[in-house]
Amino acid sequence: MTRKTLKVALLQETDRGSHDANLDAIEAGLREAAAAGVELVLLQELHNGPYFCQHESVELFDQAESIPGPATARLGKLADELQLVLVASLFERRAAGLYHNTAVVFDRSAAIAGIYRKMHIPDDPAFYEKFYFTPGDLGFEPIDTSVGRLGVLVCWDQWYPEAARLMALAGAELLLYPTAIGWDPNDEQAEKDRQRDAWITVQRGHAVANGLPLLACNRTGYEPDPSGVGAGIQFWGSSFVAGPQGEFLAQAGNDARALLLAEVDLARSEHVRRIWPFLRDRRIDAYADLLRRFRD
Fold first, then answer.
1. d(Cα 275, Cα 284) in Å, to the nearest integer?
2. Cα pseudo-dihedral 287, 136, 227, 219, rounded to 10
3. Helix 189-210 crosses helix 161-169 at what angle (to 10 degrees)?
4. Residue 155 annotated to the active site
5. Is the previous residue joined to 185 through a cis bond, with omega within 30 degrees of 0?
């Protein structure tokens, strides 16, 4: 890695009501980012529509898109025109009855540089993702781009230290998390605060433990449960960029659209890893039980 600083942007958005309206908003955000001299842009999870996993409906599989397909064609054209490295997030139709939650990376080109399929799939009230998504089968493999080797993970992956560590061990130079997470509006404020703080803290921990910068882009705004059973989700935004010691480089608010800009010093990871050599001191000879579900 010869470059030192990288200007990045996170596009924290609300659902605009339709596939085309969301892509129009993304295009506007990408043009704004490019005008600001940004090289790398991270979008939120499943940005082309609402977060549809609040309930289970077979009709919603119709929203899935092939990769490559129309959405990747439009996003790739923008990445090429604006000379951006772009990390997008799509509901992938791989085959009939086989769907994934998939991140797609473009490297200043209309061509797809690589994809990552979400590995950890939740199944909780208002987050019924196991109904829709097959767990990823590509492993934890970074994607090489002109700005560095990107360790792209997706939302629920962000709670697992193993995922971040495996990306780091494969040479990732940044960790990136497109995300869709929010509160149950009926929860007490203290519980909301605990959940948001935990979400931020665990990811800052991944940055620290691996000596890597980290970008987390969440959606914002209230989205009702279309079934009427649940209370809906108030997505808490709070997208942020952290440095390799977990320090905040930029942070968005929780209740509004934001184009979050930050400068990342990529050379700092080398310095931090020299003073905190966690990779050197790992006891790989003693970790075999990590491959067990639980130690009874």
1. 20
2. 80
3. 20
4. yes
5. no
Domain ranges across the chain:
5-289
- Residues with Cβ within 8 Å of 134's Cβ and at least 6 positions away in sequence, in order, are 94, 98, 99, 100, 117, 121
The CATH label, of 1.10.10.350, 3.30.70.1560, 3.60.110.10, 3.40.50.720, for the domain at 5-289 is: 3.60.110.10
Residue 281, token pair as written in the block:
């001191």
Q: Where are the alpha helices (DSSP H) in the chain?
A: 19-35, 70-82, 161-169, 189-210, 268-275, 278-281
Annotated catalytic residue, options 13, 39, 45, 223 = 45
Tens-digit pLDDT profile for residues 9-42? 999 999 999 999 999 999 999 999 999 999 999 9
Mean pLDDT of 118-137: 97
Residue 2: per-residue pLDDT: 53
Q: Give the separation between CA 22 and CA 144, rounded to whole angstroms.
A: 27
Give me the sheet containing 240-242, strands edge to edge: 143-145, 148-152, 174-179, 214-218, 240-242, 248-251
Region 95-118 average pLDDT: 98
State the catalytic residue, choosing from 155, 173, 217, 223. 155
* Residue type, position 141, single letter: E
**pTM for the model:** 0.97
**Neighbouring residues of 77: CB distance < 8 A, sequence distance ≥ 6:** 110
- Distance in angstroms (rounded) separating the CA atoms of residues 221 and 271: 39
53 is catalytic: no
Catalytic one of 39, 53, 92, 118: 118
- Which residues make Cβ contacts (< 8 Å) with residue 249, sequence separation at least 6? 213, 240, 241, 242, 243, 262, 263, 264
Q: What is the pLDDT of residues 232-247, one digit of tens each?
A: 999 999 999 999 999 9
